[in-house]
Design brief:
mainly beta; globular; 12-stranded mixed beta sheet; 2 helices
Length: 197
């Protein structure tokens, strides 16, 4: 009986540690670098996680001068459902990924949709709406995806760039075009730029 009991406990332990059953919550971080960046925030409007995985509202802010960070508190078990939710929010827009062979994720651990707000030195506040960000895996790393229905551009394997017209509060035209590109090596680092009109 003792042997059977130990075997049962061992099997339960193995199941609990398997990717499909792991339920640990992690502070998953993705970074955005931009020259002159002084303020950074991401306001979530919706999210998707793999069934049975934990999730808590995340945080965002400045990580260091010129770099912002988004922290998503969620489990790391991937599923097709989350990837489909991500692509549903991208629609006919564009995707971008850190280290990936394809232009659309097959499986993701989690994804969040929201509004990205940037504050730059000498510039009015910039607001990018309907930005979706998700985490998957590529090789041994947990890689990150981003996209949106308002983004255009190209995503080719591990590189690419997207462009989104964002609101600029108090700006001369009322909007500005913002670019997003993966850094090299990327994993969880993107760069943001402005297109001069």
């Amino acid at each position: 009986m003792k042997v059977r009991h130990l075997i049962a406990l061992g099997l339960l332990s193995m199941l609990a540690s398997a990717p499909g059953y792991a339920t640990s919550i992690h502070g998953n971080k993705v970074y955005f670098a931009m020259p002159g960046l002084q303020g950074f925030s991401f306001t979530e409007t919706s999210h998707s996680v793999t069934k049975g995985q934990p999730y808590k509202p995340g945080t965002s802010g400045m990580d260091k001068p010129g770099q912002g960070v988004i922290v998503v508190n969620a489990g790391r078990s991937k599923s097709e459902d989350v990837a489909k939710w991500f692509m549903g929010n991208v629609g006919s827009g564009q995707t971008l990924a850190c280290d990936s062979k394809g232009s659309a994720p097959r499986e993701l651990n989690f994804a969040v949709l929201g509004t990205l707000t940037l504050e730059l030195s000498g510039q009015s506040q910039i607001v990018c709406e309907d930005v979706v960000i998700g985490q998957g895996s590529f090789g041994l790393n947990n890689n990150w995806w981003m996209g949106g229905k308002n983004m255009s551009g190209a995503h080719l394997s591990i590189t690419g760039a997207t462009l989104q017209k964002c609101r600029q509060k108090g700006g001369l035209l009322g909007f500005v075009e913002v670019t997003f590109t993966p850094q090299t090596p990327c994993v969880n680092h993107f760069s943001i730029g402005l297109v001069k009109l």
